[in-house]
Amino acid sequence: MKNSNRHTAIVLSILLTVGSSLLASRTISFAQQSGMSYHFSTPIKEPHLKDNTPAAGAVLTSVPSEIKLDVDFYVGPGDQISMMKDGKEYGMGVTFVSSDKRSVTRSVDPEAPNGLYTVNYELCADDGECHPGQYQFAIQKAGNIADGQATDRRFSPPKDVPQLTAHTPLHGAVLAGVPINVVVDFNYDRGPGSKIAILKDGKDYGIGDTTIDGLSNLHIRRNMTSDAPDGIYTVKYTSCQLNGTFNGSCNDGTFQFAIDRSKASTFTDLRGQKAVTITLKNISFDPRYVMVSKGTTVTWKNEDDVLHYVNTDQHPEHSYYPPMNSQSLLKGDTFTLTFDRPGLYPYHCSAHHHMTGTLLVK
């Protein structure tokens, strides 16, 4: 991996993979098993990945014993696998490297419930160069409902539009609180006629007008009322190019997410403190899920030897809450922000895609 030509080939491969996913609307696959629908995002494949178990898009009737990634080069230290569902990690123990250094594995919680899982991974070579990847699969054990709940939380298939790159919340996300806004991202500037509605039971829980912002007007955004009730929300949006009102180039899209405040019970409750510190160590945020009071000042401090970032979702748009985007943080560096608006703030480290966190302001 130390050969410069090989490095160049790897970088070009990553750029082509990421670029193609941004220049086209995100592809969603569709699967059904036992009467339950699942919608899988397009995998992000690390250049040297040969195979993964479970397979991307698989719907399993039992919990797998492990996640296994096979590669075509010798892996080194720093490899990571996480298996996430609704913000919770279902991987157990540490990530192991095989004796021949051609595969990495991580055990899976045998009590993992039904539902859609996202596998985030990072594969590293002996020289320390690492590349991330991601894919999804589902567990649907016979006789149970997804999420292991007695409710029928089912999301309709999303409808994407041309030039869409991302949106926050993600389709199918189940949130522990109300998002401060809904943001839809594009790779071409938006214009008049673009709008967002956030609907539940026929009522719009968006507040104010839809705004267009970001570099070259790539994002459309609408705030959401903080007292929105629990349940499934359908986001209906109209996307118009800058000259769309004149040539008819407007398109309508939809996606869904859910709010379930009971999930906030898993958050570290630091309410009542004027200042809170979250450390970045062992390639993770600690605490990862934090609840604070309105007006709290939060400081992130890097205690790792490697570079980190604090970036608002989604990657790489970082558009959900733009003030929540730090510069690169070396060991000992800090990033501080005061949160005056109640709601949910999901974020991640752009240098380590599996490194995620959520702040819930009340």
Q: What share of the residues does DSSP label as strand, in percent? A: over 45%
Question: Which CATH class of the largest domain is shown?
Answer: Mainly Beta
The biggest sheet amounts to: 5 strands, mixed
CATH architecture call of the largest domain = Sandwich
Q: State the total count of DSSP E strands.
A: 29
The overall pLDDT average reads 84
How many separate structural domains?
3
Shape: globular
Taking the alpha carbons of the first and last residues, their distance comes to 48 Å
Query: CATH topology of the largest domain, which one?
Result: Immunoglobulin-like
Q: Helix count, per DSSP?
A: 2
**Multimeric state:** single chain
Low-confidence stretches: 1-36, 143-152
Strand order of the largest sheet: 4-11-10-6-7
Percentage of helical residues? under 10%
Structural class: mainly beta
How large, in whole angstroms, is the Cα Rg? 20 Å
Can you tag this structure with a few keywords?
mainly beta, 362 residues, Immunoglobulin-like, disordered N terminus, five-stranded mixed sheet, 29 strands
Overview of this protein structure:
The structure is a single chain. By secondary structure, the chain is mainly β. It has three domains: 4-148, Immunoglobulin-like (Sandwich); 164-262, Immunoglobulin-like; 267-361, Immunoglobulin-like. Helix content is 7%, strand content 46%. It contains two helices and 29 strands. The protein has helices at residues 4-23, 244-247; strands spanning 28-33, 36-41, 49-53, 59-60, 66-71, 80-85, 88-89, 91-97, 103-108, 115-124, 130-139, 164-168, 174-175, 181-186, 195-200, 203-204, 206-213, 219-224, 231-240, 250-259, 268-269, 275-280, 285-286, 289-292, 296-302, 311-312, 334-339, 343-349, 352-361. The strands form seven sheets. A five-stranded mixed β-sheet has the order 4-11-10-6-7, with no helix packed on it. Strands 13-20-19-15-16 form a five-stranded mixed β-sheet, with no helix packed on it. The protein has a five-stranded mixed β-sheet with strand order 21-24-29-28-26, with no helix packed on it. β10 (115-124) and β11 (130-139) form a beta hairpin. The longest helix is centred in the N-terminal third of the chain and has 20 residues, at 4-23.
